[in-house]
UniProtKB/TrEMBL annotation:
Source superkingdom: Bacteria
UniProt entry keywords in alphabetical sequence: Hydrolase
Record bears the keyword Hydrolase: yes
Protein name as catalogued: Gamma-glutamyltranspeptidase / glutathione hydrolase
Pfam families assigned: G_glu_transpept
Matches recorded under PANTHER family: GAMMA-GLUTAMYLTRANSPEPTIDASE (AFU_ORTHOLOGUE AFUA_4G13580) (PTHR43881:SF1)
GO molecular function annotations of the record: hydrolase activity
Record bears the keyword Zinc: no
Length: 535
């Protein structure tokens, strides 16, 4: 990977980090240090990723938790492996059940959107297949953070306060009492720099470590989740937990200008990023900051999302094949729709045939791209009493339309927004990348990949660069660092341009590339408390 050191769209907020022996990049400094600690103890990149992921449930609970889902791409033993640890809807939950209860759309909070959590299974599966150190040692840094407490960082503190205001307004039932006891123990959100601790969280992590997550799915923790759900009329049961297994899957890819860009297949929407890149690959892009570049990127994402929102679902229920959506012929058909005016996006007809992100690398050649989430910040607003387990609300992405591929069914996985990315060239790894943030994620993937490959930006500059986000229809939101003349030109082409308030909605990314000499170079997100730990 070669970088044009003379070209930066805007001054970099920090320098890219270079190292040889190992690297951990994530959105919270303490979690990055947890991963580095495991590397220095003799663990590999997979152990470091698990340690970092577990620590993030403690030191960034505003975005993920033990009760969430996870996906991973792992480069090890000379090839790329994919892990889907997203859980399905409970067996007792269906459209018919909700219709009978008068529910016409899936709410954000409470038990209805709760699906089986997959994150603990992801840690155990990754450890069993690739890890070098016992899970009890790998989860130890996270356990200590939960036991002893830690001071809140600035972005974390701001997000926590915002979540507290929202939950105070909407969470009124007794089932939500444990959330406030856990995350607002003094009747308010902890402030920036204030120490927060969760002994119950520590005990739960210890149990997961000692049993290799068996207690969560078939033991004492499963019993507590089941009891809590039954007490308040929820749908998740011990039987749903016991039946769950994380799934090893074959990653999907497109070739973009000589590089293979890899994503997890559906039910995740990494497919959207790949479809957009497939559309864009036959255009010429000579400069980053031109209206032509912005316009074509936005139009490609709109077309890809129109298909993604129509067809992406649990792969057992999709009406089209992934390979058809990623075919060159279909990309050409969609590319031909892009002209000088902004489109109202519509799905095509292919031929039939609130998240954390982290990446790690070690000196042995292993690399990991891992993402986990509770969705919409803290998730459902439900915390299993006495455990620190905040249950996610990923089922909110289901539709209740029986004709839709992503319609709710018992045992079915929902459309999922969290996606890890990976880049290779030939048969060699370049490295992991990701940009978390709901429906921004494929858009962030496209932008950082093009910043890297088309515009030769190093990882930090690729993340620092201004971002845009398509919202719906012809509406696109721009960061204030986007040049004003580009915004004005986009408006003349029919885009409904909005300037964003802050940068919170534009995703939070991490990148680690390995060059031809084995040197690691990393970038971390300037829009959060991002950190790289390296040695």
């Amino acid at each position: 990977m070669k970088y044009d050191s003379l070209y930066y769209p805007y001054p970099s907020r920090r320098s890219a980090v270079y190292a040889k022996n190992g690297m951990v990049a994530t959105s919270q400094p303490l979690a990055a240090q947890a991963g580095l600690e495991i590397l220095k103890k003799g663990g590999n990149a997979i152990d470091a990723a698990i340690a970092t992921a577990a620590a993030l449930t403690v030191v960034e609970p505003t975005s993920n938790g033990i009760g969430g889902d996870a996906f991973a791409l792992v480069w090890s033993e000379g090839r790329l492996h994919g892990l889907n640890a997203s859980g399905p809807a409970p067996q007792s939950l269906s459209v018919a059940v909700l219709n009978k209860e008068g529910v016409r759309e899936i709410p954000k909070y409470g038990f209805i959107p709760v699906t089986v959590p997959g994150a603990p299974a992801a840690w155990a599966e990754l450890s069993a297949k690739f890890g070098k150190l016992p899970l009890t040692e790998v989860l130890r840094p996270a356990i200590l953070y939960a036991e002893n407490g830690y001071p809140l960082t600035p972005v974390l503190g701001s997000n926590w306060a915002r979540a507290f205001r929202t939950y105070s307004q909407y969470l009124k039932g007794n089932e939500f009492k444990s959330w406030f006891e856990t995350f607002a123990p003094n009747g308010r959100a902890p402030g920036i720099g204030e120490i927060w601790r969760s002994p119950a969280h520590a005990r739960t992590l210890q149990s997961i470590a000692e049993t290799k997550a068996e207690s969560f799915y078939r033991g004492e923790l499963a019993e507590k989740i089941d009891q809590f759900s039954k007490e308040y009329g929820g749908y998740l049961r011990a039987e749903d937990l016991a039946a769950f297994q994380a799934e090893w899957v074959n990653p999907i890819r497109v070739n973009y200008r000589g590089y293979d860009v890899w994503e997890i297949p559906p039910n995740g929407h990494g497919l959207v990023a790949l479809m957009a890149l497939n559309i864009l690959k036959d255009f010429e892009f000579t400069e980053r900051d031109t209206v032509d570049t912005y316009h074509k990127q936005i139009e490609a994402i709109k077309l890809a999302y129109a298909d993604g929102k129509t067809f992406i679902a649990d792969p057992r229920h999709m009406s089209v094949r992934v390979e058809d959506l990623l075919s060159d012929a279909y990309a050409e058909e969609r590319r031909s729709l892009i002209g000088q005016e902004a489109l109202e996006p519509l799905p095509g007809r292919p031929l039939q045939g609130g998240t954390v992100y982290l990446c790690t690398a070690d000196g042995e050649g292993n690399m990991v791209s891992l993402i986990q989430s509770n969705y919409m910040g803290f998730g459902s607003g439900l915390v299993v009493p006495g455990t620190g387990i905040a249950l996610h609300n990923r089922g909110h992405n289901f539709t209740l339309d029986p004709a839709h591929d992503n319609c709710l069914e018992p045992g079915k996985k929902p459309y999922h927004t969290i996606i890890p990315g990976f880049l290779t060239r030939g048969d060699q790894p370049v490295g992991p990348f990701g940009v978390m943030g709901g429906f921004m994620q494929p858009q962030g993937h496209v932008q950082v990949i093009m910043n890297t490959i088309d515009f030769h930006l190093n990882p930090q500059a690729a993340l620092d660069a201004p971002r845009w986000q398509w919202i719906e229809g012809k509406t696109v939101e721009l960061e204030h660092s986007v040049p004003a003349h580009i915004a004005e030109a986009l408006a003349r082409q029919g885009h409904h341009v909005k300037w964003a308030v802050g940068s919170g909605g534009f995703g939070r990314g991490q990148i680690i590339w390995r060059d031809e000499h084995g040197v690691l170079v990393g970038g971390t997100e300037p829009r959060t408390d991002g950190s790289i730990a390296a040695w």
